[in-house]
From TrEMBL, chain A:
The lineage of its organism: Eukaryota, Viridiplantae, Streptophyta, Embryophyta, Tracheophyta. It is found in: Nucleus. Keywords: DNA replication, Nucleus. It holds the Pfam family RCF1-5-like_lid. This is AAA+ ATPase domain-containing protein.
Automatic annotation (TrEMBL), chain B:
This is Chromosome transmission fidelity protein 18 homolog. GO terms for cellular component: nucleus. GO terms for biological process: DNA replication. One of its GO terms (molecular function) is ATP binding. Transmembrane segments: none annotated. The keyword Nucleotide-binding applies. Residues 1-17 have a biased composition (Acidic residues). The keyword Nucleus applies. Residues 290-302 have a biased composition (Basic and acidic residues). Residues 1-85, 278-307, 406-428, 853-893 are annotated as: Disordered. It comes from Salix viminalis (Common osier).
Length: 342, 1031
């Protein structure tokens, strides 16, 4: 149930440009849960047929000569006969070597299809925006040089971190997050397939809560289904736990503004970060939840949230900036309170 | 020669006469003594006759005569010009003359040898033949004073005769060149001698006795106490009683800071033995009178110390910033306690191989030299170079640990102690510390010292108070005759942070330059500033703590002090480097400070600064622009400006970020490994990021549906069964299951069950931890244990299907060709009833399989021969996901085949065994009983490792008729045996695959069928696994 319906919407789009096989390299970008991977899969299936779905996971260690030393890199690839999927940013700061050596190696070898014609293979690179600058630079030559035998599909969340040089070599496809009515349609479709009866407005509520992420929408839909099947129209949609936690933090911040409270908030922020919640989202959510504030403050808080997020992306230790934002908010809020209530 | 001889003038001679009239008087009664005519006489007398042969030698003699023998005036006539010439031309000779003249003064002249009891020199006057004996004596006080004078101003002694001569020479209008050169000569002598005789003040005024030490009283006394604890071990037991008293006294004193004993230092420093112990006695008596401590305490203490022998910690580690007197303390205290100090410092070779013998020498041997005091090892600058220090530390630790071991090995403490003492005295032990060892370092947190810190007694040196330093400095200045103000001195001490060495060096330097210490411009004056790098804790303290400014209010106002503070802090931070740690520390500790911040402005500013530093750091890292690091200290300063308080901050080492990093890595690893377990067609859609963001909570909800009743499977309604099947398929496809975990406090999600059951089941990839925030209770429904068990069972069942598929894939695919060939050959060659039939059957099946291809399902999914155990699975199989269908089917076809084979081959198989299914799964080792007809029952204990259980696959090796058979068994509802016998070269596949239900079977019994292998060495044999409950 979770997966099957995912594929639903993509064929429409992919059909359009799978016809256009001359497009060598596509870079697709969009927020998570908007169906980038699904789109790519659909595209691959369009090109290679059903065989593109037979994938196997390979975990291989590569030995790379880098000047005087050899580097051992472990890389997990997902491959079918015609395409290889990998996320080079897993290698961290050594991603350059993956791009320079492994991808080049893969790109060089040209597959020969059954009829003896020279085919081409497709490399899907995930999370290109997390690639280091060096890696991106070394990628751009590879892209051009081996384009006859290899097509690249780059997948990223935001194109702003992909260098201009690469972007100009790609067909950039922006995949928008699905609109709420689209989500509703999908949910209704799923309901029909699964034989569920949806009370009116229920799908809309799920979609509303989903933050325009289709994955989340479907998952929470399934959750509702599991928790209570004959849906009641006012059934509670279980929230994300970490979001609950963030709102807890927010109420903490509203209740008291002092260094001591800031210290408590720090502990909670760490809890979130430890559990692999990306700091950017935390900040965003914080600022969003704080929008419940007075109108006057909204603007300012948003401004500061943006400011600190900018800094956070430039910096390294996210907690510094998160906490700086919290402190700033506390300061602003307290000043506001004093001003209003004396 | 002759020409020069003419030069002398009569008036000069007169002068000389007058000069030496004293000697003349003593020589007055000329009485030639014939009987003591030493052989030297001839030598002595020869110079006047042949003066020009050897200038140096003869000049000596001549000058002696010239000064000494007053009456030989005519001799002077020719002697003097020679000297003139010498003084004019040859510097060396003049020097010699000067020396000789000095010696000359020491002689007492006598006519009789008998009057002289020391060394003497006979002198004979060439003209009259008078002989006198000159005594050489060095007792004149006047002489001594002159000698001292000579040392400080080198030309003091020669001034008279030579100056006079020079004056004469000027009068005689000697050549100008002569004059100039003689002046040069006197100039050149001056600096030479001065350098030779001036010491560094630091050494000159180094404290010699214990009372003169500048360092903290308490530290001093504790060091002394430590030394005293060695007494019984080092000096033997005869003086123990007194030393105990001393110990107790010291004990008491170290708490009450009083001035130490007034007079006993001389006793102590002499030697061990009676004087030493007497000193102790006296001292202790004094203390006894002073102190009215109860005797019980003392007795207890004595007893204790008697038992302990050498102190608990055999190594003393002194640490503190340079110039506070650590080395001095070590030396003085050791001397004080009657030790001879052997120092090893960084200038020595300190690799562990060479140092070991050295330390052993010091620590275990007694010297046979005159100085028989026991030695005390002082290892200076132990933290110096990392490698060096490490070597030393290793050796020391080895010694200490060996000592420890031997100590603990002994049964009786006292006896052990005694024997230990005896052996250590004799130095029999190979490596143990029998002498006190003091290590000195600057940075106690140096990594090389980490192990040493744990075994050593650590003393941290603190700065002495400024007043103490100043008083000492003043004393020295007075001694040296420098005029200083105490304000200037205290400023100096402040500036150098009470580093007395640097103070003294500075003072001496200024003194040399004839400068006066200037209060206001200490920093601008050339004062040696240490290139300090302080510990990171100090830096944090500096940042968080406002310095108390005393004198800034006086003259300069706050502005100057501000600048001063700024400078010092800036240099402090930038000297330390390591900004990452510094800022982490600031970040971690800043919120613990108590600064006044009503609207949190300061906090915001501080965090802004921290953010900026982080951004800079990141930028530097990325662009490798190291010069930008110069801006980091300023950020620390701005923080300091915001939050610095007077109170002492309570600083902790920043751990939070590191902890965060490690935990995050751990969790990421968990996620990754989980993601790798999920089949690729699903996991490719999941990134770890989106997983925690979007998926965890719903998945947790989904896998714990509250609608599922905790009842047996067959009692569920159709719809519930449907739900269950769906749930199981979800769990399988996300490779989740429940696992027995020990109830640990962190993951104790379901306390109610955990309380009852020791083993609670929790989700296997521990994804529930990802929502386990501190202080947050998630509203997730926890499944009852029974349901979980059902789920585990079902999931295992599902997995078995996939596992059998994988077995089929690996073994079937890889070995298919060989297998087939083997089967066919078996069919052709041997025509035996059962196996042949069986193999034929299997081959046909196999062939159909191969023909139908890998993925095309062969046969119907619902086999008619499916037995009851399969029925359980039917639920799950009804709704497998799309991708699972194929394997399920293919495996089903396998099962069919096996069933057929079994029913054919085995007569004794009772189907009852197959039906036994319970919901429990047990992970105990299975005992395979392999019953061969005609052979004894052989039992194999299979140790299923954890993984094997998860994979539901056991691998046993059965040694059957000499050939090794590898058996791969997939145990669960079905068991598949793949029997491989390594043949001569190739692995022959003796494949019998048996499908059976093994749920709840504790013991397996493998029966061989009669008409198998033993009778006809035929590959096509059948193995039956028979299961019995409670076997």
């Amino acid at each position: 149930m979770t997966r099957s319906s995912f594929i639903k919407k993509s064929p429409k789009t992919s059909r359009n440009w799978s016809l256009n096989k001359t497009v060598h390299i596509c870079s697709s970008m969009g927020p998570s849960g908007s169906g980038k991977k699904t789109l790519i899969m659909a595209l691959l299936r369009q090109i290679f047929g059903i065989s593109a779905e037979k994938v196997k996971v390979e975990n291989r260690t590569w030995k790379i000569d880098a000047g005087s030393r050899t580097i051992d890199l472990e890389l997990t690839t997902l491959s079918s006969t015609n395409h290889v999927e990998l996320s080079p940013s897993d290698a961290g700061f050594q991603d350059r070597y993956i791009v320079q050596e492994i991808i080049k190696e893969m790109a060089k070898n040209r597959p020969i299809d059954t009829k003896g014609r020279k085919g081409y293979k497709v490399l899907v690179l995930n999370e290109v925006d997390k690639l280091s600058r060096e890696a991106q630079h070394s990628l751009r030559r590879t892209m051009e040089k081996y384009s006859a035998s290899c097509r690249l599909i780059l997948c990223c969340n935001s194109s702003s971190k992909v260098t201009e040089a690469i972007r100009s070599r790609c067909l950039n496809v922006r995949i928008n997050a699905p609109k709420e009515d689209q989500i509703v349609k999908v949910l209704e479709f799923i309901g029909k397939k699964e034989g569920l009866q949806l009370p009116p407005g229920f799908a809309a509520r799920v979609a509303d809560k989903s933050n325009r992420s289709l994955r989340r929408a479907i998952l929470s839909f399934e959750t509702c289904r599991v928790q209570q099947y004959p849906f009641s129209s006012n059934q509670a949609i279980p929230p994300m736990d970490w979001e609950e936690y963030v709102s807890e933090i927010c109420s903490d911040m509203m209740r008291e503004q002092s260094p001591k409270r800031l210290f408590q908030v720090r502990g909670k922020l760490y809890e979130l970060l430890i559990n692999c919640i990306p700091p950017e989202i935390i900040l965003k959510l914080l600022s969003e939840l704080l929008k419940k504030l007075d109108e006057e403050l909204k603007h300012e808080v948003c401004h500061w949230a943006a400011y600190y997020e900018h800094r956070m992306r430039m910096g390294q230790k996210a907690i510094f900036h998160l906490e700086a934002f919290v402190a700033k908010f506390m300061s602003v809020y307290k000043a506001f309170l004093i001003e209003t209530f004396g | 020669m002759d020409m020069e001889m003419d030069i002398p003038l009569p008036d000069e001679l007169e002068l000389l006469e007058a000069d030496s009239h004293l000697f003349q008087d003593s020589l007055d009664p000329p009485s030639p003594d014939p009987y003591t005519c030493s052989p030297q006489l001839e030598l002595e007398q020869s110079p006047p006759q042949s003066p020009s042969e050897d200038a140096v030698l003869f000049d000596e003699k001549r000058s002696k005569i010239y000064d000494n023998a007053g009456p030989e005036v005519d001799d002077e006539d020719w002697l003097r010009p020679v000297q003139d010439r010498n003084s004019g031309n040859d510097e060396e000779i003049v020097e010699v003359v000067v020396v000789e003249e000095e010696e000359e003064e020491e002689k007492i002249v006598s006519r009789y040898v008998s009057e002289i009891d020391g060394d003497f020199i006979p002198v004979t006057a060439p003209s009259g033949g008078d002989r006198v004996y000159a005594k050489i004596c060095r007792v004149d006080t006047e002489q001594g004073a002159k000698k001292l004078d000579f040392k400080s101003q080198s030309n003091g002694l020669i001034s008279e005769p030579i100056n006079v001569l020079l004056q004469k020479m000027e009068q005689e209008a000697f050549t100008k060149a002569l004059q100039a050169s003689s002046e040069d000569q006197s100039d050149e002598i001056l600096p030479e001698t001065q350098v030779m005789h001036e010491k560094l003040w630091v050494d000159k005024y180094a404290p010699n006795s214990f009372t003169e030490l500048l360092s903290d009283e308490q530290t001093n006394r504790e060091v002394l106490l430590w030394f005293k604890q060695w007494d019984s071990c080092v000096f033997g037991s005869d003086i123990r009683s007194t030393s105990d008293d001393i110990l107790s006294a010291l004990r008491r004193h170290s708490s009450i800071t009083q001035h130490p004993k007034p007079s006993d230092s001389t006793f102590f420093s002499k030697n061990k033995g009676h004087a030493w112990s007497r000193g102790n006695f006296r001292h202790s008596n004094n203390l006894e009178q002073e102190n009215s401590k109860p005797k019980g305490f003392q007795d207890k203490w004595t007893k204790k110390s008697r038992l302990t022998g050498p102190p608990e910690q055999k190594i003393l580690l002194l640490c503190g910033p340079p110039g506070l007197g650590k080395t001095t303390l070590a030396h003085v205290a050791a001397k004080h306690c009657g030790y001879r100090v052997v120092e090893i410092n960084a200038s020595d070779d300190r690799s562990s191989s060479t140092i070991e013998t050295k330390i052993l020498d010091v620590v275990q041997m007694n010297s046979v030299m005159a100085d028989s005091r026991p030695k005390c090892l002082v290892i200076d600058e132990i933290d110096g170079a990392l490698n060096d220090g490490k070597g030393v530390v290793e050796v020391l630790l080895k010694m200490v640990s060996s000592e420890r071991k031997s100590d603990t090995g002994k049964e009786n403490v006292t006896k052990g102690e005694q024997s230990g003492r005896v052996s250590s005295k004799k130095g029999q032990k190979t490596a143990s510390l029998a002498r006190p060892v003091i290590c000195i370092c600057n940075d106690i947190y140096a990594p090389a010292l980490r192990p040493l810190r744990q075994v050593a007694k650590v003393h941290l040196f603190v700065q002495p108070t400024v007043s103490r330093v100043v008083s000492r400095l003043k004393y020295i200045c007075n001694k040296e005759g420098i005029k200083t103000s105490s304000i200037a001195l205290s400023a100096l001490a402040d500036y150098t942070e009470c580093d007395i060495r640097s103070c003294l060096n500075t003072l001496q330097f200024l003194n040399k330059k004839r400068q006066v210490l200037n209060v206001l411009e200490i920093s601008s004056q050339v004062v040696g500033r240490k290139d300090m790098s302080r510990s990171v804790f100090d830096i944090w303290k500096e940042i968080f703590q406002k310095r108390k400014m005393k004198q800034d209010r006086k003259s300069k106002g706050s502005c100057g002090s501000l600048r001063n503070e700024f400078d010092s802090l800036l240099s402090l931070v930038s000297n330390r480097g390591d900004y990452d740690v510094i800022f982490d520390g600031i970040y971690d500790n800043i919120l613990q400070l108590h600064y006044h911040d009503p609207v949190m402005q300061k906090t915001v500013k501080c965090f802004n600064s921290l953010g900026v530093s982080d951004v800079i750091h990141q930028y530097i890292m990325r662009s490798q622009q190291m010069p930008l690091y110069a801006y980091q200290p300023c950020i620390a300063l701005s923080v300091h400006r915001q939050v610095a308080q007077i109170q002492k901050p309570n600083i902790e080492w920043p751990r939070s970020y590191q902890r965060y990093r490690t935990v995050l890595m751990e969790k990421m690893d968990k996620l990754r490994s989980w993601q790798n377990k999920i089949p690729p067609h699903i996991s490719r859609h999941l990134s770890t990021k989106s997983f925690v963001e979007d998926s965890v909570s719903p998945i947790l909800h989904i896998i714990s549906p509250p609608t599922l009743r905790p009842v047996a499977v067959h009692l569920l309604t159709e719809r519930e069964k449907n739900d269950l099947a769906q749930l199981v398929s979800t769990m399988v496809s996300y490779s989740m299951t429940y696992k027995n975990i020990k109830p640990d406090p962190l993951a104790c999600k379901q306390e109610n069950e955990a309380a009852l059951d020791a083993s609670s089941l929790s989700v296997d990839p521990p994804i529930h931890e990802f929502i386990n925030f501190k202080g947050y209770s998630s509203g997730h429904y926890a499944l009852p244990l029974a349901v979980k068990q059902v789920l585990v069972h079902e999931v295992e069942k599902q997995k078995i299907l996939q596992a059998s598929r994988s077995v089929h894939l690996t073994h079937g695919h890889d070995k298919q060709n060989m297998y087939l060939a083997e089967r066919e050959s078996a069919m052709q060659s041997t025509q035996i009833n059962h196996p042949a039939a069986f193999s034929g059957k299997s081959i046909s099946n196999e062939k159909s399989m191969i023909n139908s291809g890998q993925c095309v399902p062969s046969g119907s999914a619902t086999s008619p021969i499916m037995d009851s155990s399969r029925r359980d699975l039917s639920n799950a199989k009804l709704k497998p996901s799309v991708n699972q269908k194929k394997p399920t089917r293919s495996s089903t076809s396998f099962f069919d085949r096996f069933r057929k084979a079994n029913s054919k081959g085995s007569q004794s198989t009772d189907s009852a065994g197959w039906k036994t299914t319970t919901l429990e799964r047990d992970s105990r080792p299975l005992i395979f009983k392999f019953n061969e007809p005609g052979c004894a029952t052989s039992t194999f204990l299979v140790e299923p490792c954890l993984e094997a259980i998860q994979q539901c696959r056991f691998h046993i090796t059965i040694d059957l008729i000499g050939a090794q058979i590898d058996v791969y068994i997939v145990v669960q509802v079905t068991a598949v045996l793949v029997i491989l016998i390594p043949g001569n070269n190739i692995h022959e596949l003796w494949g019998i695959w048996i499908v059976t239900s093994m749920m709840s079977c504790h013991y397996l019994r493998c029966l061989m069928l009669e008409n198998l292998l033993l009778k006809n060495q035929n590959p096509g044999f059948c193995v039956l696994l028979e299961f019995e409950n409670g076997f």
